[in-house]
Amino acid sequence: MYRFLLSRQWVILTLVALLLIPTMIRLGIWQMHRYEERSARNQLVADALSSKPVPVETLTSPGHTVTTKDRYHNVSAKGRFDTDDEVVVRRRTNSDDEVGYHVLTPFVLDDGKVLLVDRGWIPANGPSQTAFPRIPAPPRGEITVTGRLMPDETTAASGIKNLKGLPDRQVMLINSEQEARRLGAEVLGGYIAQTTPEPKGDIPELVGRPGNEDAALNYAYAIQWWLFSAAVPVGWVVLVRRELRDRREAADQPSEEPAPAAV
């Protein structure tokens, strides 16, 4: 009764089942690795966000690349804002997905070096994007700012094209090397997303905190793939038993004798 398993149809079905099982197991393992990676990144971000502010020059310097370990770490700096060389970063959205600008203001430290400070989001003032928008002024004089340390933005990492020929004092990316050339000054690597002092009023709207990656989803996918791999042999056995039942029922049915010919 099991000779049907050697038929072409059943050989192909069995080979596909044997291929699916290890494939689904490997997909489950891959999803579990993704879960572990995302969980580790979430923990790294959480630790950085809850860290106590440290002087910014302990984590970055001119030409320095901000690492993943230091990203989002709270830092502080003492100096003054230089609004004369302030620029805006185009095509940025706020928490309501409204398109506007980020305000990027050089912050001159006591030793003369410059820290780039993203003071937050402002709306576009009108249909024209060529005129420099109205920007609320930052506090005057020497102050202390704190913020989350961020790496330089690049086209490769952000997907944002660094367009040329933009209107005066407008940029596409926040990049310390680019700003160092523009300012002719020593600019610390990376920039900070300002957290204090908070602006008077709602504008600029401070850049929001990063959210957690959905690591639990990868964990659920891993379990799902492994359940699928376990279901494949179960499904194969069910199909075999159904085929056996159908064949036995067909064999047990009495054959119909032809009716006698009319005389």
UniProtKB/TrEMBL annotation:
Stored InterPro entries: Surf1/Shy1 (IPR002994), Surf1/Surf4 (IPR045214)
Topology versus the membrane: Multi-pass membrane protein
Record's subcellular location: Cell membrane; Membrane
Transmembrane feature ranges: 219-239
Keyword Membrane recorded: yes
Keyword NADP: no
Keywords, in A-Z order: Cell membrane, Membrane, Transmembrane, Transmembrane helix
Family per similarity comment: Belongs to the SURF1 family.
Name of the protein described by the UniProt record: SURF1-like protein
Organism: Streptomyces cellulosae
